[in-house]
């Protein structure tokens, strides 16, 4: 990965799940734990639960409701917030993410969290991982009513925090979101090579990717 032009970067925008936190928690919850609990609580087979949830996931992927615990609680008739607590021991920071956060704050960069996570999910993770002190703001896309995939999110973010896209770095593990940021004009974009520690590296296509956070600090 080429070293970052830190002299040209004032604002660092960071995703949470899969970027600063290991995506294993979320993948395990949505793809394994939730189908199992859905089957138990609704009295259906695991196979049927997986089929029903899979169809709903495909229909809602990339839209704001996909990230909304209220939506899923109503749709599935399950207490999704409470179920998420059952696997909360899996919430984990990615290696050296805290070192990176401390260094960029120390260097005087403006550091802002932008996540599609519902506020309840954000709170759950912040209770277990001390991320908040590193950030000027913690922004959920639910605050604006648009997921990060949508151009309206970036318009709302600009109106809210007044950042210069040409002098900003954005790191996210979701390629459609990075493309949305690029269309808005964010100049420095990085994907994440291995958002889920249990699944191995992924193809980040046109984007350079973070393999380890310490390597980003060169030249800071």
UniProtKB/TrEMBL annotation:
NCBIfam families: HAD-SF-IA-v3, PRK14988.1. GO terms for cellular component: cytosol. It is an enzyme of class 3 (hydrolase). Keywords: Hydrolase, Metal-binding. CDD domains: HAD_like. Its EC number is 3.1.3.5. The keyword Lipid metabolism does not apply. It comes from Pseudomonas vanderleydeniana. InterPro entries: HAD-like_hydrolase_sf (IPR050155), HAD-like_sf (IPR036412), HAD-SF_hydro_IA (IPR006439), HAD_sf (IPR023214). GO terms for biological process: DNA repair. This is GMP/IMP nucleotidase. SUPFAM superfamilies: HAD-like. One of its GO terms (molecular function) is phosphoglycolate phosphatase activity.
């Amino acid at each position: 990965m080429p070293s970052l032009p830190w002299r040209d970067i004032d604002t660092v925008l960071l995703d949470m799940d899969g970027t600063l936190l290991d995506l294993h928690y979320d993948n395990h919850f949505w793809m394994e734990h939730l189908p199992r609990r859905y089957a138990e609580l609704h009295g259906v087979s695991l196979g049927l639960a997986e089929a029903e949830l899979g169809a709903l996931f495909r229909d809602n992927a990339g839209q704001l409701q996909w990230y909304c615990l209220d939506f899923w609680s109503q749709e599935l008739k399950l207490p999704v917030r409470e179920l998420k607590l059952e696997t909360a021991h899996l919430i984990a920071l990615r290696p050296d993410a805290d070192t990176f956060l401390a260094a960029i704050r120390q260097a005087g960069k403006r550091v802002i969290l932008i996540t599609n996570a519902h506020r309840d999910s954000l709170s759950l993770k912040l209770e277990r991982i001390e991320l908040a002190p590193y950030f000027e703001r913690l922004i959920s896309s639910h605050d604006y009513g648009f997921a990060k995939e949508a151009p309206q999110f970036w318009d709302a973010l600009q109106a809210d925090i007044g950042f210069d896209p040409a002098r900003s770095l954005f790191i996210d593990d979701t390629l459609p979101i990075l493309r949305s940021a690029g269309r808005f004009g964010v100049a420095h974009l990085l994907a994440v090579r291995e958002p889920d520690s249990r699944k191995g590296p992924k193809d980040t296509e046109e984007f350079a990717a973070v393999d380890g956070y310490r390597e980003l600090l060169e030249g800071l």
